[in-house]
Amino acid sequence: MAELVGSKRVLVCVGSGGVGKTTTAAALGLAGARQGRRVVVVTIDPARRLADAMGMSGRLGGEPRLLDLDVQGELWASMLDARATFDRLVVEGAADPTQAERIMANPFYENMAGALSGTQEYMASEELYALWADDRFDLVVVDTPPSRHALDFVDAPQRLVALLDNRVYRMLTAPSRGMVRVVSVAARAFVRMASNVVGTQVLEDAVTFFEAFDGMQDGFRARARAVTDLLAGPDTGFVLVASPRPDTVDEAMALDEALAERDIPVAALVVNLLHPDPAGEVPAADRALLAGLDPGHPLAQRWQTACDLAATARREREAVAPLTERHAGLASARLPRFEMDVRDLQALGDFGDALVDVQR
Fold this sequence. Notes:
alpha/beta; Rossmann fold; eight-stranded mixed beta sheet; 16 helices; 8 strands; elongated
């Protein structure tokens, strides 16, 4: 894990809900800062737990915030602001300020930037790319939403390319490219059909938006492909986070396979919330003596508790075996169930010590 933290430019923590992705992401960021790297941890999970895990008061915003730590490097934290990211992309991609203002004032843009399905995920990938290209940071650690939405984050750039290449999109923007005669019949038929479904004003806003957007497609398309290359490239490592429950293991296996289908290998495996096996540390001769004690003896009762914990630990090992065997050659960590939630930097440091062996 220490080598992974020291060599990658991007680490993406993925897994199902409730397995400790946010804590793992924050701990990896702290480990990188201890190694002397300039790290930013960004959460795209709307659950907003990153600030809690890092012991930060107040809410995180879209602009990275530097933590006051006694470490060799730097640790920053931020939370995706999809609307601000979209506005920035429009301003950067527009031919002039007038085009950017026309787009951002459009009611269709207002709805799309705030609520359209897929916008959040694509803006998350754009934010990752911007942070990766930012000279202030050596390492970007991403805390993703639960599995399905994490895949949406991975797929979002390609979906944007597919939208820009879609014939309906080209048809709507064709009049502004001087092709109105070629598509006028098809366009009128589509407009009539769409107006009956969404209303004339909504459709007019959409057409106006796409006309205003004309000329920016190539820039968005190139950026989307660059983000896709970054996610699948050698600078990026995906950290699969799981817990020993059978349902979370099944979900982690499915996510693992889905990433493999996209030619994205998992770089590391983290299994959180494991129970200890105190009975396993007792020599065989002592076990025999303990097993022979009268059941009412206080030591026998404690031994029974240790045996119960050992049985739980054994079931957990069996549950995670498909994952650990599949990734036997990768960086991995098996972390115990901590007594308290990680809600300050001291607890995060303790968690990080268990996750990554870093000399302070």
